[in-house]
Amino acid sequence: MTTEEPTEPTPKKAPEPSGVDLARVALRAAKEQARARGDAAQQKKQARRGGLRSGARADGRDPMAFGAAINRLITERGWETPAAVGGVMGRWPQIVGEDLAKHCVPEKYDEEERVLVVRCDSTAWATNLRLLAPQLVARLNEDLGHGAVKLIKVNGPGGPPRRYGPLRAPGSTGPGDTYG
After folding, report:
1. Range of the domain at 122
2. Which helix (H) or strand (E) element contains residue 93?
3. Is there a domain that residue 89 lies in?
4. Which of 32, 48, 107, 152 is 20 to 30 Å from the Cα of 165, by its Cα?
5. What are residue 124's phi and psi, to 5 degrees?
6. How far is it, in rounded angstroms, from Cα 139 to Cα 143?
């Protein structure tokens, strides 16, 4: 008897890809390369624009609460100190007291000079405010931040606006005018 050795089955070679198979492989590779290029281009575009601009994710175009929008605008424009001073003008009676607030009103704030201009309805109240000015500057700086107000300029009562009557034309000389 002859013993036959079991032979291992010879592995079949994969058939060489034909034209259609080669086209599928090439198409799949081209799609992957295009997707990779597209992803890289999308990331560059997002980096230039500062993030996503559309879709379900939040971005800078989404609506926001009014207070948040105002705070963002104030911060972007650098209006923190003027806005804070405006808040002080709204809370003037709480800061200086009711009696003083009845007679002295803040008129304007010069941001460059950091001067708060206050008008009083009488010279007596103007004098009183001038005496209290250093304490008031300290109180305002506590509220607004150090150095926000350097000086309080106190103005006394102003006279009524100058009116030109029918007998007086602007630019004409009269009893109180000086001659050049």
Report:
1. 67-155
2. helix 92-96
3. yes
4. 107
5. -65, -45
6. 6
Is 103 a domain residue?
Answer: yes
What is the CATH number for 149? 3.30.300
104 DSSP β-pair partners: 120
In a domain, 81, yes or no: yes
Distance CA 66, CA 23 (A): 58
Q: Would you tell me the crossing angle of helices 66-77 and 80-90 to the nearest 10 degrees?
A: 120
Q: What is the pLDDT of residues 85-143, one digit of tens each?
A: 677 777 888 888 888 889 988 888 887 888 888 899 988 999 998 998 899 888 888 87
- Between CA 85 and CA 143 the distance in angstroms is 9
* Domain count of the fold of the chain: 1
The end-to-end CA distance of the chain, in Å, is: 148
Q: Can you read off the two tokens belonging to residue 51?
A: 């993030």
From residue 40, give the alpha-carbon distance in Å to each of 32, 35, 56.
12, 9, 21
Query: Is residue 5 assigned to a domain?
Result: no
**DSSP bridge pairs for 152:** 116
To the question of pTM greater than 0.90 for the whole model, the response is: no
